[in-house]
Specification:
By secondary structure, this protein is α/β, with parallel strands linked by helices. Helices cover 38% and strands 12% of the residues. The chain contains 13 helices and twelve strands. The chain has a seven-stranded mixed β-sheet with strand order 2-8-7-6-5-3-4, sandwiched between helices. The protein has a three-stranded antiparallel β-sheet with strand order 9-10-12. A two-stranded parallel ribbon has the order 1-11. Helix 5 runs parallel beside helix 6 and helix 9 runs parallel beside helix 13. The structure holds 4'-deoxy-4'-aminopyridoxal-5'-phosphate.
Length: 374
Amino acid sequence: MALAEYYLDYNATAPMRPETVAAVAEALAAGGNPSSMHQHGQRARARVDAARRRVADMFDVLPHQIVFTSGATEANNLAMLGGGARRLISAIEHPSVAASDETCPRIPVDATGTVRLDALETLLIEHRPDLVAVMAANNETGVIQPLGEIARLVHARGARLLVDAVQAAGKMSVPLGSAGADMITLSAHKLGGPQGVGALILGEDQPLAPRQRGGGQEGRRRAGTENVAGVVGFAHSLGCAVDWGEVAALRDRLEAGARASCPDALIVGEAAPRLPTTSCLLTPGLGNEAQMMALDLANVRVGVGAACSSGRVESSAVLRAMGLSDELARCAIRLSLGWASVAADVEAFLATYARLVARRGAGSALLNRPTLTT
Ligand code: PMP
């Protein structure tokens, strides 16, 4: 019998529901190129059209406002590079936004991880950007940004607002239009859909310069044969309801339990509004790699900072932007819950965490207590 696995890393990728897997498998088995004029191709076209309508309905936009992509990394690159030449981004953006323009100014955040509106106003005046990027909710801390106020300031200066809604989508409303974003990016696999598919949603009449050329797909904004099964799974996952109140109760239990074991633990961003799913737990003196590995041995899967493509853990740029020292940032783990989370996941985490905290007192070489500089 397989050992139980306790999964607390939904912000890296959420498990797929069996019904979504079945919808993807059905589309894969049916095959077809949506650009083929014959009936086999047209059946594939109908699947893509239905998926596009479903995503459009969820965001209250028209189907032509959706550009399907290979994921949010591509969608963010497309929006950043095709959405305006002078850019301004927050200091806590995902690397797919940040690396799209390494030299543009960064809007600082305060100690809670919230974008500083005074600094945004000054930068808008000084830099006069065409495009401003601020994510809806942070992938490491879950901290939610005041998008209404940000949109008001950005639009008052004639700029456009790009909102990475990858972690927020399905959990809170992310408005598009004059009171909200001009462009929104999404990723299916954070919602219980397949990996390798996402979308850029454009506000009405928002221009976009294509980057990928060589075909007329996606209204000439993104060339390449559509990922038919991917978009089917994406649309399916968006339609699945989750009781976020229940998830929030699990998250609260997790944070209370962690505090009971370790009174000096910090919940990063706790003072700001946060997603109901995410907890960034910083335990002074417990290195995050050591925590992650010990938890992994107990079949408890957690995240360490940003999911790291190279397999090497770097200290989190998000936590450093919030004013935490490099040393403290290396003591934070990310616990993220979702549609299939249950109390046993939380209790399994808490049992192992309590043992780790008890060992911290004994002073292991891996678990050096850092100097508290913040
Ligand atoms: N933005 C945020 C906030 C994310 O968390 C992620 C995934 N780590 C991405 C963008 C990139 O999404 P994808 O994996 O679909 O490229």
